[in-house]
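Schema walk-through. Below, the input block comes first and the output block second. Nothing else is stored per chain. Lengths vary across the set, and this one has 180 residues.
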Amino acid sequence: EPHGNLGALLMARAGAALREAIRLQPDYADAHDNLANLLAAAGDFPQARAHFEIALRLRPHDARTRYNFAMALGRARLTDEARQQLESAVRADAAFVEARLVLADLLVATGQPRDAIAHLREAVRLDPASARAQLGLGMALATTGDPNAAVPHLRKAAAAADASIREAAVKVLSQLGVAQ
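--- output ---
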């Protein structure tokens, strides 16, 4: 496992460098955000949370930090807090498509597909070429009983380069009885 050892070494060095940057400049929000991401990836959620919270005190309207924190919260299965951070990220940057998509995924996963539709519609408006957004919107519309509105989005997703998106769209279209 030479690569695993190298990865661990690089993460340790990056962590040490970020801690030193924070020691020298405690109000360096990017260093707190990056260290939090590193700690979250290493499974140290309590320390990651502490650094995300510092970064957000320093830059409360930073959409990327809120998104990163939401991803860590999601991995820790703190879905309500993750939702709050994603909603804040979208408020801070209305054009943040990835945050909208993750928020929509979370809403669908927690049984709220109707709430997801507005975020998915906006994601499609912002990035009509996003097969993931098209698939998400199509699936949410189909789930909420609007298959006619779902089909055009599912057809776009069925033409995606990404095989998993394409296969999911084809499966839903088939379930809806729509020919390819």
